[in-house]
């Protein structure tokens, strides 16, 4: 080993000049610029900004207050996603420990990024391999490659074998020649496809965007027609420009346009998603994309990675089975097992035994140990000689059994029986005094007698069983997708009751079909898939998509990144590889699987309540379209100002909707949000639009106004009152049942809205007036008639559809 010189300084500089250094451009998360761009440049912002600019041109800035929603909505999205990004970046810092390379014939320490191609690199126990390489010499090195392959068992490496960046050295050490660095490494190539950023599908946002796209088609011509109709009422363009009446024409046109846009719904959606994300953050659950909150509510298929989800990645000792051939007591066996595994650097299995026996033998003096042969992955056994002359051998059953002279058939049958359950089985044998070989003889004494088998398994998470039970009750089908042996994984899945009391059905991924449609057919009868390659995990997600499922996928390794990217909702553990956390929508910071029910429940609460209150906003869109069309066709003055809409919306839509959206609700979300909301909103909007147009037409005749323009303020006062009354009626309808806090909420906003008209500052800003004289009676009469119209339309629609989807 000493004759290996490694690279010289000049060779290192040559490789640095050729950029053959271990620097990767892989991003840990979206950039701040990307987050700002995606939140600023939206269709909604474009429409509202254009309308606001039109109003500001007229100088009526008070009628442009609706534009504040752009600032608030954009700020919420940026703040929440940037906060998540900064948290994720802290979680995703790569191991910054120094690495040892041999250069100029001596070992030197360098940073991760300073490793170059062809470097001779030491990899040591406990370290993460920083670059791909080929083993030159090994000292019993074993690697955990589960981050790359999903296979949790350690892999022994020998000279000539490849090692990959991202794997972890479990034991031993090795000298390797670096064969790939930076973006050329296996782990980076594996995640290359996962780097492409895609937004999370949102049923709510899809519905809102459909409305916005439809509005784009009608907004421009409608705005032009409204301006034309209002200019015509002002005496034509020449007169309007001369008198300044064009300003009011533009303001009134914008009043119609703004009413068409459900800006409050866009804001409330962002705000509720953000609040849900903040609440989850307090439970160490990081939501990287706000839309992911909605996806949480829709999940009906959950693919689980075994390691880190069902198990914690460690090993636990389950049992010590004393054999019939044993000729010492169970206590002697237990004590001997403590001694033989009490090494200076125990491997994971020995550590599991130590953890299990520490309470019983933790104070046992190691002075009883005379000599020791430590565990070696090459031998696959260890031994200890005690002061009483006994030698105890602990190791792999097939290795120990093959060295013994006694009949080991019963032993191996016993071992096989336990191995079929997915357990890791080892044998403890003993040589009696006088029959043991010299202490320096690294062979197993053939006369040794098997005393016990030690049954170990992967350490199951304490929260796994309860969490899986919750998902079953909620109708979410959970499957385990793992790189491990399917029989082993199925045994663990049975322990945590993946399928209740039934044994999970399993298969080897090598038997999977090649097309998503055929895979989907197979998966219907399968609960556990083992030996899965990264591309197959992605194929399984595609298969479930082909059947219309909303799929969530958990993972922690680089091998999971593609599947997490393909899933509707990628969930990464906090100790996951940086690339995996970067593509996931949700990161469980403390890696606790038990957080998932809270995550899903929070999503369901937001979505079920958002569906309830979305109707409030779309009622405004519906009646604004009807009123705008009626104004153009009938040649009417627009019945209210943009600031009136802001005021009414505050008390009958925005604020109460926000409070209703925070109410407890665990109903599972079902696609079809827009259809159900329209069923509730359109009839109410139709009744409201008809009522306001009827009021605008009839009031001048009832009160005998010959020139409507002279009484425009009074007419708008009556129309605003009608709109407010119908808004409160709709709020009461949505808030049912009213025999709870919801009834008090409706009453509060009804009183607060009326009270605002009596406060001079508020009344002056929003141009609110109290009806006087005959207008009082006309207002009350029209309000009562409008309620009757609203109730009649609602009754007819419900009779036709025999359906009420708000509850």
UniProtKB/TrEMBL annotation:
The chain crosses the membrane at residues 40-58, 64-82, 211-231, 251-278, 617-641, 647-665, 677-703, 715-734, 746-770, 776-797. Gene3D superfamilies: Calcium-transporting ATPase, cytoplasmic domain N, Calcium-transporting ATPase, cytoplasmic transduction domain A, Calcium-transporting ATPase, transmembrane domain, HAD superfamily/HAD-like. GO terms for molecular function: ATP binding; ATP hydrolysis activity. Keywords: Hydrolase, Membrane, Translocase, Transmembrane, Transmembrane helix. Signal peptide: none annotated. It is found in: Cell membrane. Residues 95-193 form the P-type ATPase A domain. It is a multi-pass membrane protein. GO terms for cellular component: plasma membrane. This is HAD family hydrolase. It comes from Alloscardovia theropitheci. The lineage of its organism: Bacteria, Bacillati, Actinomycetota, Actinomycetes, Bifidobacteriales.
């Amino acid at each position: 080993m000493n004759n290996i010189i490694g690279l010289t300084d000049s060779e290192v500089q040559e490789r640095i000049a050729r950029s053959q250094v271990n620097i990767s451009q892989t991003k840990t998360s979206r950039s701040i610029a990307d987050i700002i761009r995606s939140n600023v440049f939206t269709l909604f912002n474009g429409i509202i900004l254009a309308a606001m600019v039109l109003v500001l041109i007229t100088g009526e800035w008070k009628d442009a207050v609706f534009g504040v929603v752009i600032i608030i909505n954009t700020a919420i999205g940026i703040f929440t996603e940037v906060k998540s990004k900064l948290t994720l970046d802290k979680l995703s810092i790569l191991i910054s420990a120094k690495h040892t390379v041999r250069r100029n014939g001596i070992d030197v320490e360098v940073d991760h990024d300073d490793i170059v191609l062809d470097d001779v690199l030491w990899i040591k126990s406990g370290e993460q391999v920083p670059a791909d390489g080929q083993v030159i010499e090994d000292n019993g090195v074993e690697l955990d490659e589960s981050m790359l392959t999903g296979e949790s068992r350690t892999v022994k490496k020998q000279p000539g074998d490849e090692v990959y960046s991202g794997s972890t050295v479990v034991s031993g050490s090795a000298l390797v020649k670096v064969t790939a660095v930076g973006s050329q490494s296996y782990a980076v190539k594996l995640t290359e496809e996962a780097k492409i950023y895609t937004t999370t599908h949102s049923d709510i946002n899809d519905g809102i965007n459909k409305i916005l796209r439809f509005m784009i088609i009608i907004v421009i011509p409608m705005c032009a027609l409204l301006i034309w109709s209002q200019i015509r009422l002002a005496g034509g363009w020449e007169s309007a420009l001369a008198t300044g009446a064009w300003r009011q024409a533009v303001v009134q046109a914008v009043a119609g346009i703004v009413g068409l846009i459900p800006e409050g719904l866009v804001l409330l959606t962002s705000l509720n998603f953000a609040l849900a994300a903040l609440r989850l953050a307090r439970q160490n659950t990081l939501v990287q994309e706000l839309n992911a909150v909605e996806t949480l509510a829709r999940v009906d298929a959950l693919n689980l990675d075994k390691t880190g989800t069902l198990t914690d990645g460690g090993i636990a000792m389950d049992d010590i089975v004393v054999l019939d051939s044993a000729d010492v007591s169970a206590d002697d066996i237990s004590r001997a097992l403590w001694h033989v595994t009490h090494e200076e650097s125990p491997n994971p299995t020995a550590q599991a035994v130590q953890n299990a026996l520490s309470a019983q033998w933790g104070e046992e003096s190691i002075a009883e140990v005379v000599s020791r042969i430590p565990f070696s992955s090459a031998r696959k056994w260890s031994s200890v000689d005690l002061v009483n002359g006994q030698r105890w051998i602990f190791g792999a059953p097939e290795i120990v059994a093959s060295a013994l002279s006694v009949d080991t058939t019963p032993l191996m049958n016993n071992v096989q029986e336990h191995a079929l359950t997915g357990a890791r089985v080892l044998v403890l044998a003993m040589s009696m005094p006088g029959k043991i070989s010299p202490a320096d003889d690294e062979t197993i004494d053939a006369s040794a007698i098997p005393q016990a088998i030690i049954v170990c398994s992967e350490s199951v998470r304490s929260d796994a069983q309860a969490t899986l039970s919750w998902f079953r009750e909620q109708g979410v089908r959970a499957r385990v997708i793992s790189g491990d042996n399917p029989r082993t994984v199925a045994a663990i899945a049975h322990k945590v009751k993946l399928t209740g009391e039934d044994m999970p059905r399993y298969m080897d991924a090598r038997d999977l079909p090649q097309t998503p449609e055929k895979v989907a057919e197979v998966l219907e009868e399968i609960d556990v898939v083992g030996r899965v390659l990264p591309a197959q995990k992605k194929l399984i997600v595609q298969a479930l998509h082909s059947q219309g499922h909303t799929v969530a996928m958990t993972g922690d390794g680089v091998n999971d990144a593609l599947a997490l990217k393909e899933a509707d909702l990628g969930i990464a553990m906090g100790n996951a590889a940086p690339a995996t956390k970067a593509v996931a929508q949700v990161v469980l910071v403390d890696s606790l699987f038990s957080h998932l029910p809270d995550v899903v429940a929070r999503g369901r609460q937001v979505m079920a309540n958002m569906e309830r209150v979305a109707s409030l906003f779309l009622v405004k869109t519906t009646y604004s379209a009807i009123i705008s069309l009626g104004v153009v066709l009938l040649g009417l003055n627009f019945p209210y100002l943009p600031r009136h809409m802001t005021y009414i919306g505050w008390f009958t839509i925005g604020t109460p909707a926000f409070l209703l959206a925070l109410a407890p609700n665990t109903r599972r979300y079902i696609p079809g949000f827009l259809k159900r909301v329209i069923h509730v909103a359109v009839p109410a909007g139709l009744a409201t639009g008809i009522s306001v147009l009827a009021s605008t037409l009839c009031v001048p005749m009832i009160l005998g106004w010959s020139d409507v323009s002279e009484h425009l303020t009074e007419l708008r006062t009556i129309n605003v009152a009608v709109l407010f009354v119908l808004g409160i009626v709709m709020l009461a309808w949505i808030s049912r049942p009213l025999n709870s806090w919801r009834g008090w909420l409706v009453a509060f906003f009804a009183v607060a809205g009326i009270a605002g008209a009596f406060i001079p500052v508020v009344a002056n800003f929003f141009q609110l007036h109290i009806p006087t004289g005959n207008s009082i009676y006309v207002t009350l009469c029209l309000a009562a008639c409008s309620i009757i119209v609203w109730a009649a339309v609602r009754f007819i629609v419900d009779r036709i559809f025999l359906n009420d989807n708000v509850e």
